[in-house]
């Protein structure tokens, strides 16, 4: 009987401990854990992906535990993780105003976040490949392979975002080619052609925001995943940024099921049905 009483008491103490631990989570609070990043701590900012409004910031976040954020509206956000560079970039090092003792050159790693109550309040984002901090700073977030644990829609959102990443790679290749043309004209002292090449370069930097490949890939993804609210968001995202409604009409017509429950569906529908 004494053994039974001791066992019962121990069990109750365990339950009490669990309850105390869970009660530390404030109601509606979101916890995001970045696993396997080669960074111990950094500053974290979270912005709304459409408005750009900062909704959370933490100057010193330890990445060995979840980052606790207040309740946020179900939506798409972007996290910005920044830390002092391990290697100082050339542009900063050679700046006349740079003082190695006072100034710090910060690297910023961005990661889109899909947050929704139906996915729970705990998000685990695993870096599947092992990379060094120097490799991240040299090559950017593109070399990281993220996996969202127990959140298939988060993975789908990342798949969409990779389409945009591929576009920016294509844009960079074009810019590199245009820079080569510009410098070639300058070296040959053809200032007229150099000026035209420079204007073309600046135009692409500023105005080349998408291409037909990206549009086609986004449309294909929406048609492939027509019941996901993630698809509704990305259809809205393209229409919001570029307003090419005729181009995405078939994608809009393909939406069904849960995709119609997204708050962004009403915004898209209003553009097609008005």
Number of helical stretches of at least 4 residues: 9
Radius of gyration: 24 Å
End-to-end Cα distance, whole Å, is 76 Å
Q: Just give the CATH class of the largest domain.
A: Mainly Beta
Mean pLDDT score: 87
Number of domains: 2
Protein name: DUF4369 domain-containing protein
Task: Write a compact overview of the structure shown.
With 274 residues, the chain is α+β, with helices and mostly antiparallel strands.
Account of the protein in words:
The protein has 274 residues and is an alpha+beta fold. It folds into two domains: 27-150, Immunoglobulin-like; 163-273, no CATH class. Helix content is 47%, strand content 20%. Strands 4-1-7-8 form a four-stranded mixed sheet. The relative contact order is 0.08. This is DUF4369 domain-containing protein. It comes from Sphingobacterium olei.
List keywords for this structure.
alpha+beta; flat; four-stranded mixed sheet; 2 domains; four-stranded antiparallel sheet; 274 residues; disordered N terminus; Immunoglobulin-like; DUF4369 domain-containing protein
């Amino acid at each position: 009987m004494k053994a039974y009483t001791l066992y019962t008491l121990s069990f109750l103490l365990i339950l009490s401990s669990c309850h105390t631990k869970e009660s530390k989570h404030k109601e509606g609070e979101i916890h995001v854990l970045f696993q396997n990043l080669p960074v111990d701590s950094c500053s974290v900012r979270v912005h709304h992906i459409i408005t750009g409004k900062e909704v959370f910031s933490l100057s010193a976040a330890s990445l060995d535990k979840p980052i606790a954020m207040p309740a946020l509206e179900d939506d798409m956000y972007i996290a910005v993780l920044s830390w002092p560079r391990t290697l100082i970039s050339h542009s900063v090092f050679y700046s006349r105003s740079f003082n190695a003792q006072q100034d710090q050159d910060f690297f910023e790693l961005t990661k889109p976040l899909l947050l929704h109550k139906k996915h729970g309040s705990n998000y685990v984002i695993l870096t599947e490949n092992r990379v060094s901090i120097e490799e991240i700073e040299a090559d950017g977030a593109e070399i990281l392979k993220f996996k969202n644990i127990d959140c298939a829609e988060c993975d789908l959102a990342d798949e969409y975002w990779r389409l945009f990443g591929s576009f920016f790679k294509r844009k960079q290749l074009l810019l590199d080619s245009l820079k080569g043309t510009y410098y070639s004209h300058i070296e040959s002292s053809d200032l007229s052609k150099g000026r035209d090449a420079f204007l073309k370069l600046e135009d692409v930097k500023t105005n080349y925001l998408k291409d037909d490949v990206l549009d086609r890939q986004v449309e294909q993804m929406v048609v492939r995943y027509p019941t996901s609210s993630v698809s509704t968001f990305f259809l809205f995202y393209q229409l919001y940024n570029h307003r090419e409604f005729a181009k995405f009409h078939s994608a809009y017509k393909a939406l069904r099921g849960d995709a119609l429950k997204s708050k962004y569906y009403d915004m898209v529908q209003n553009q097609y049905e008005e």
